[in-house]
Design brief:
metal-binding; Peroxidase, domain 1; 16 strands; signal; EC 1.11.1.-; 5-stranded antiparallel β-sheet; binds protoporphyrin IX containing FE; alpha+beta; single chain; Immunoglobulin-like; 2 domains
Length: about 450
């Protein structure tokens, strides 16, 4: 897409500015990956649970009400409703915990369902999982969905039928359960008939993990199942009635699980596809955007403020995506006046310090940020700008102008610096209108 687009700019930022400079709302609560903010440990660690697992399970349970036949249910944040959270199929406090984190991040640009999707996606990517395609545009449900989340005591036939109703084949069911259960475990507090009270003062929920690396993504859910070392409470639980993972994993003669165990890459790529399908399962009629890819050069927080005597202050920063630190790099912003003309003075060098670095995908991709030397520049008028980036390595400087579109802004109607908040609860908002606009 072409910048500016307020909705997609916000969504792109939520999706790609995960950590570091201008980092989004999720990564700090996933660092480290065994961080859990609702446990007994004041350091939010080591309770056996994790925010990451809660967010992933919440996204699945929100989606699992989908009915491909009539188009109802799906990822629509209906899990926020008290009634839905308190059904037996949604046992545990992970859903409430998740909503406490996420509710205030929803806005007119990103629904709570999009935020839940982004939280689950960030948890998977941040904690060792594969990159997942993200589309925006989910719509929040206005009431609870019909029940339908699978439960451990259900038969394998009923699980196959249940996943078919959600839109997944038997093979995809095996995959999605394995992909989800590479994180977290079962707690005595929520499932006392499956997990005994461990009596561990550091683990008040008595969590029994699905695999030995339950705070990070890997294929141990499959390898430990096949080599017989698994302690997964839904496989080796003392009550066979609730061993649903076992019944699901063996249901195709272990073909799917063997393929996962043999190849970590195959497991990761299958999970990337299935997680994306899960997160894109929405009620019929909801139209999702194209996959949101990162802009290679992205202005952020650009704002014009009218000062006085016809002068404007321009503030903002720019992000260079997927670049390494390079002290030799120089970045310049070049702008055109409102009539399209440009003089040689219409150029500003941008500065960068070592802390102006962001990252995504658990640090696998980094970005570098640049800003105006005094955080702003002063100009008379502006209609658009572009960037000249010189890596300082002898190669030709490159022009970044969105394939000729330029980065378009309007200076006809802007905030005025005479706006003020004279006392608590009182504000005066002044708006400056260009004389040219008035004459039109
Ligand atoms: C037949 C299907 C499934 C059944 C019967 C099932 C059952 C369970 C149960 C009983 C728990 C323990 C929850 C707790 O103690 O709080 C759990 C945890 C979890 N499930 Fe599933 N699950 C299924 C499918 C899935 C799928 C498809 C995903 C995601 C793709 C998923 C993700 C998770 C996660 C991340 C946890 C860990 C939560 C935590 O540690 O707090 N599950 N599941």
């Amino acid at each position: 897409y072409i910048w500016p687009n307020p909705r997609l700019d916000k969504q792109e930022s939520l999706r790609w500015d995960q950590d570091g400079w201008n980092g989004g709302p999720f990564a700090s609560f996933l660092t480290p990956c065994n961080r859990f903010d609702f446990g007994s440990d004041p350091n939010s660690l080591g309770t056996g649970r994790s925010n990451a697992a809660d967010w992933i399970r919440s996204a699945y349970h929100d989606m699992a009400t989908h009915n491909v036949e009539d188009g109802t249910g799906g990822l629509d944040a209906s899990i926020r409703f008290f009634e839905e959270q308190h059904r037996p199929e949604n046992a545990g406090n992970g859903f409430l915990n998740t909503m406490i984190f996420l509710t205030h991040d929803a806005s007119s640009y990103a629904s709570l369902a999009d935020i839940l999707t982004l939280a689950a996606l960030s948890a998977i990517e941040h904690c060792g999982g594969p990159k997942i395609a993200y589309r925006a545009g989910r719509v929040d449900a206005l009431e609870p969905n019909a029940p339908g989340v699978p439960e451990p005591q259900d038969s394998v036939e009923s699980h196959i039928a249940n996943f078919a109703r959600q839109g997944f084949t038997q093979e995809e069911m095996i995959g999605l359960v394995a992909c989800g259960h590479t994180f977290g475990g079962v707690q005595h507090t929520a499932f006392s008939d499956i997990v005994p009270d461990l009596g561990d003062p550091n683990d008040l929920d008595s969590n029994a993990p699905f695999d030995s690396t339950f705070v990070s993504f890997d294929n141990k859910i499959a390898t430990e199942f096949l080599d017989g070392t698994t302690a997964n409470p839904l496989i080796v639980g003392s009550n066979d009635t609730t061993n649903s993972d076992k019944r699901i994993f063996v249901s195709d003669g272990n073909v799917t699980m063997k393929a996962f165990a043999e190849s970590p890459n195959h497991f990761a790529s299958t999970c990337a596809t299935l997680f994306a399908r899960m997160l894109d399962t929405v009620p019929r009629g909801v139209q999702l955007t194209e996959v949101i890819n990162p802009l290679s050069v992205k202005p952020h927080g650009f704002k014009l403020l009218y000062m006085a005597d016809g002068l404007l202050n321009l503030t903002g920063e720019v992000r260079l995506w997927d670049v390494q630190e390079n002290p030799a790099r120089s970045v310049h912003l070049v702008w055109s006046n409102s009539d399209g003309s440009a003089s040689e003075e219409n150029i500003s060098h941008l500065t960068h310090t070592a802390d102006m670095v962001g990252s995504a995908l658990g640090g696998r991709v980094t970005s570098a940020w640049y800003k105006f030397p005094r955080s702003f520049i002063t100009l008379n008028s502006i209609s658009k700008f572009h960037f000249i980036i010189d890596e300082g390595d002898g190669s030709a400087p490159r022009i970044e102008d969105q394939d000729g579109h330029g980065f378009v802004v309007q200076d006809s109607v802007v905030w005025s610096s005479t706006s003020c908040a004279p006392s608590l609860g009182t504000a005066r908002m002044d708006i400056a209108v260009s004389i040219h606009t008035l004459l039109l």
